[in-house]
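4.2 Preliminary Data

To establish feasibility before requesting continued support, the project team ran the inverse folding procedure on a target of 342 residues. The structure was first converted into the token representation described in Section 3, and no sequence information of any kind was made available to the design step. The complete token record follows.
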């Protein structure tokens, strides 16, 4: 289409039009040079509320960018790979540097989706990753729900990430994606992947029988309700009240493209640690585009309201993502279309 950039053309192919705020961001992303110019920002730090289309725009940029060597990392997956890499290289004195190279390689362009840091132990690793990327003059597009100064928001630990914040400010152009519309809250048709999931009051047809299943992650055994080829079924308690983390969720997301989570409670009635695990679980499954069916005796909007009222970090993002799940009782678990992620 004459006069239309590659990002807007990608939206048209998927059947929707960018709003004015998204078009402004698309134009700025398309103007990024790879490799970057000798002076000026080496990329964009795209931030703003959940559900406005940040991830979709950044993914479309990465697809269109002419770099031969490019990659995408997500916060949870990146930290998981870093910790695994450090463990595998632990006999070497430069184990951290080797792990960083395993994650980012020698790329010209990198998309860092959902950049956030709440764990003080991860602050130093993220700072070293940024140092390495900018020293190599890699073009970086990062998405986040947080302005740079809001990263690692705990007043006790914030100072640990101040060097990382300085790197972001010195090397990336901050760009806020405005807009009052949470696109995940809008009605959408049947879809595939995460957006094809559903909020149900009963088990979907064909759900694996709950006979118990033992699954492993790094030689550790965990008991879940059931597994079948490509399908994992577990209760909220098994996944969020037990001492699990993104490590397990990421491993199972790679193994099972469809999940059924039963007995989802009102979040206001569970401990903060379980709320935080549920937030992480939905983050991981959304990024992995896993089809998620949540089974609960409670109304979806009531649980969304609990998430919006929660003081847990990133609970606002959970609320936005739960809106993608169809609130119906007769949906199957085999979606057929696709939709835009934000």
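Position-by-position output of the design step:
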């Amino acid at each position: 289409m004459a006069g239309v950039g590659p990002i807007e053309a990608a939206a048209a192919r998927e059947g929707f039009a960018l709003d004015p705020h998204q078009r402004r961001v698309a134009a700025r992303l398309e103007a990024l040079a790879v490799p970057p110019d000798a002076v000026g920002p080496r990329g964009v730090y795209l931030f703003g509320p959940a559900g406005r289309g940040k991830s979709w725009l950044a993914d479309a940029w990465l697809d269109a960018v002419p770099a031969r060597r490019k990659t995408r990392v997500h916060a949870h997956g990146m930290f998981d790979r870093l910790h695994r890499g450090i463990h595998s290289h632990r006999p070497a004195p430069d184990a951290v540097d080797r792990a960083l190279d395993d994650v980012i390689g020698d790329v010209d362009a990198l998309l860092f989706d959902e950049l956030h840091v709440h764990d003080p132990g991860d602050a130093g690793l993220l700072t070293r990753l940024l140092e390495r990327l900018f020293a190599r003059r890699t073009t970086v597009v990062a998405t986040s729900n947080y302005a740079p100064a809001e990263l690692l928001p705990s007043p006790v630990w914030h100072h640990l990430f101040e060097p990382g914040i300085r790197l972001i400010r010195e090397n990336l152009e901050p760009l806020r994606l405005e807009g009052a519309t949470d696109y995940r809250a809008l009605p959408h048709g049947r879809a595939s992947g995460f957006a094809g999931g559903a909020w149900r009051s009963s088990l979907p047809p064909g759900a694996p029988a709950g006979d118990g299943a033992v699954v492993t992650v790094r030689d550790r055994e965990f008991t879940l309700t059931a597994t079948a080829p490509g399908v994992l079924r577990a209760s909220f308690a098994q996944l969020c009240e037990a001492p699990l983390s993104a490590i397990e969720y990421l491993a199972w997301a790679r193994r099972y493209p469809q999940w059924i989570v039963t007995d989802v409670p009102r979040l206001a009635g569970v401990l903060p640690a379980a709320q935080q695990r549920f937030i992480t679980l939905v983050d991981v499954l959304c990024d992995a585009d896993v089809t998620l069916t949540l089974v609960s005796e409670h109304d979806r909007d009531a649980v969304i309201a609990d998430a919006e009222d929660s003081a847990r970090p990133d609970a606002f993002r959970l609320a936005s993502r739960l809106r993608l799940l169809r609130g119906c009782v007769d949906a199957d678990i085999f979606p057929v279309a696709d939709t835009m992620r934000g």
